[in-house]
Amino acid sequence: MESFLVPAGCGEAELVEKRSRFIGRVWPVENEAEAVARIKEMREKHWDATHNVYAYIIRENGIMRYSDDGEPGGTSGMPTLNVFRAEKINNVCCVITRYFGGILLGAGGLVRAYSAAAKLALDAAGVSRMDMWDELLISCSYAQYERVRRLLEKHGAVFENTDFGADVVIEAMLAQTATAEFQKELTELTAATATCDVAGSAFRAVRLR
After folding, report:
1. What is the mean pLDDT of the segment spanning 61-87?
2. Which member of 66, 103, 171, 193 lies 3.0 to 4.6 Å from 81 by CB, making a disulfide possible if both were Cys?
3. Phi/psi of residue 119, each to 5°?
């Protein structure tokens, strides 16, 4: 299965620009119906806002939608969408609520404010990668630990837990396509004295940041 990036969870962030409040919210969504429901929820919650701008991307069927919700064309919805396109995020919905502060921002100012609010909300949500992951259990000596940790980082592993007992036991998630090469290099690095067992495998989201 092909890997792709998604929001790790829900995220919210607020930006104030020349007294206008921009409240950005990001959600992971599986389909267009979920995205539409989130947009409706925010419009009802912030019925008194000046604008409720939205953008969403659904990986299945390559759906991308956005709305300026009354802002000048091209200054809000598309810049919001472009934040997620640039980050290659799929299955995401973002709504940015603006309460006008009385000072016009101009087209450039609006683009910057909406883009910044979307990025801040995404940062608050975090990013995960949907992929076929192997759950690895690596056992090594204390003397080998730093080298093994760097080798895992080199292959893009996500650390789950490390137990410092008689030996060091590292629990890590690694993309299945990288497991064989990692095991080969681990054997070479430690002269086959460290072990690596695959405890399980699943197509799932693992948080990257």
Report:
1. 97
2. 66
3. -65, -40
